[in-house]
Design a protein that fits this description.
single chain; mainly alpha
């Protein structure tokens, strides 16, 4: 899809996470909200290179 589309997708997700966090905080919603780390893994070595490329792409989008 390209870098610009990936960047927009990443930013939309970060904005959505921020909105949910603000709603929970500002309205004191008791819903056990907490940020969690996300992990990608494969059950076979077949996808190792694909996962490494995806990680590199994500790492480039963060900055």
């Amino acid at each position: 899809m390209g870098y610009n589309t990936a960047r927009l997708y990443y930013e939309a997700n970060m904005d959505a996470l921020k909105l949910v966090e603000e709603l929970v905080t500002n309205h004191q919603i008791d819903c056990d909200f907490e940020k969690q780390d996300a992990y990608l893994f494969s059950t076979s070595g077949e996808y190792k290179n694909k996962l490494e490329k995806e990680y590199q792409a994500y790492d480039n989008l963060k900055y």
